[in-house]
Amino acid sequence: MDSNTYYSLIQFLTTLLLPVHLNKEQQAAIKQKLRYFVVIDEQLYKKNKSNPNWPLKVVKQDKIDDGLHHMHSDPLAGHFSLDETYRKIKIRYYWPQMFEDVRNYIKTCDECQRRGKNRRAEPLHPIKIGQPFDRVGMDIVGPLSQTKDGNKYIVVTTEYLTKWPEARAIPDAKAISVVSFFYEDIICRHGCPKEILTDRGTHFVNDMLNSLCDKFGVKHRLSTAYHPQINGLVERFNRTLCETLAKFANENKNDWDLYVSTALFAYRIRKHNTTRHEPFYLMYGQEIILPIEFKVATSAMLNIGDDEQEDLLN
After folding, report:
1. Is 243 found in the same domain as 113?
2. What are the tens digits of pLDDT across the range 82-126?
3. What is the pTM of this model?
4. Which residues belong to any copy of the Integrase catalytic domain (predicted)?
């Protein structure tokens, strides 16, 4: 939104007076917009029909490019698709012609044009699960280009209910690397899953992992040559992870391990086609607060009570 309209709306909503420099046509245009906006903490918000208690922060014209960068090109955003980028923005912010601006930004994104070939999604084979971390799939990605820290592989898991991923860059695909990850990043962080699903590689089929599973009562289920798709959820995440890392790694591809955590963050706040929700939302029951929301405050950052907010929006 241009600054003139932005500040004119704030002035009229707070004082019922329009700026004297506006002509009659401009004043009429401002008055027509009034019922759609509200001022909270001296900031302009657009009323949200789909979620009345969650007004959308109005973004001024000079802040749009910065916002698009944070929502698409930043490592925490992951260079995801037009639909996903627009979805993240529209539940938090508003400005005129927002979809067109997002589309044009992605059309001119060098990384997306170079690497962003859309794949047709392969169908997943549903597996019955009860609650988060009842069942996880685990896999190894690699070997990849060796990084400066000596990492060549990534061990990954995906939780089957919420689609929550975990991953760690590792120097080798030995059993000790896999077991350390499974114990420290899964069991210690999320509790003991009832079941893990893996392929039959020696990094998974070994006494060390079997011993850990026996100790904590975790059933280890193996895919077969006849049903390799049993771990399709993890394999799909692997492709997304590698595509995301490739967009941020340097030309020598020896620093991709620096972006594993940010790639995980980006995936966790991406709406999944199966659940129709973000993994983060399904795990925590709320929308995540993004870094840009501290710069361009959204409803999540409003320091007002529910009753006060309801009064303002009515």
Report:
1. no
2. 999 999 999 999 999 999 999 999 999 888 877 655 444 445 455
3. 0.81
4. 128-287
In a domain? residue 53: yes
Region label for 143, one of left (φ > 0), alpha (ψ between -120 and 50) or beta (otherwise): beta
Same domain, 235 and 251: yes
- The total number of structural domains in the chain stands at 3
